[in-house]
């Protein structure tokens, strides 16, 4: 049986799994979820007016995809914390795991003119046995590139993920933040809890 070069290449990549290791535009979750958010329930004001569909001139808000590793996604995260040495393979494997669980909602704002990610935030959904097998949301890794701060993108990300957690039927959504950022999160209805955040750190 004769097979074409393309078929042979596809058989090799299927066998080795290499096809999955090429960054691409597949979204982490269904983008329709963002379109379905009821923006009228948003708690903060935007002046000038922006929204998930229209985040600003030349900007788009969407789910993370693996191609974002080549659009400076880590450069933005690096303005929040240590990101470590991550290969494209590590990134794609983690992305695939997150996608499979359907509990990770990483959103990004891309500047289409620059082809660069300028802001990101993550919502993680935890399934519980308590509260009638309810879901709880956690917001993590909220960061806007220092060149784009003060353009309401932080507010937009927080509003979107807070509304998304409600839409996904979470009974609550929580986050941890530095004292200097408390006032920022209070805008969205978050209140400081009387519980103490504790941690046992194994490595940086
Ligand atoms: C905190 C952060 C996400 C805010 O993003 P941003 O895009 O610059 O903020 P926005 O333009 O959306 O902010 C708009 C509003 O929040 C206020 N605000 C911004 N940062 C604030 C802060 N740290 N504390 C209190 N208010 C803040 C602004 O004054 C503005 O108020 P207004 O709407 O009443 O005019 C951004 O500064 C950032 O990435 N910081 C570094 C990383 C970080 O600290 N992340 C949070 C981890 S908990």
From TrEMBL:
Pathway: Nucleotide-sugar biosynthesis; UDP-N-acetyl-alpha-D-glucosamine biosynthesis; N-acetyl-alpha-D-glucosamine 1-phosphate from alpha-D-glucosamine 6-phosphate (route I): step 1/2
UniProt xrefs under Pfam families: Acetyltransf_1
Organism expressing this protein natively: Ranitomeya imitator
The family this protein is said to belong to: Belongs to the acetyltransferase family. GNA1 subfamily.
Class of enzymatic activity (EC top level): transferase
Gene3D superfamilies with a match to the protein in the record: 3.40.630.30
Protein's name in the database: Glucosamine 6-phosphate N-acetyltransferase
Assembly, per entry: Homodimer.
Keywords, in A-Z order: Acyltransferase, Transferase
Domain of life: Eukaryota
EC number: 2.3.1.4
Transmembrane stretches, start-end: none
Catalytic activity: D-glucosamine 6-phosphate + acetyl-CoA = N-acetyl-D-glucosamine 6-phosphate + CoA + H(+)
InterPro entries attached to this UniProt entry: Acyl_CoA_acyltransferase, GNAT_dom, GNPNAT1-like
Chain ranges of the N-acetyltransferase domain: 59-204
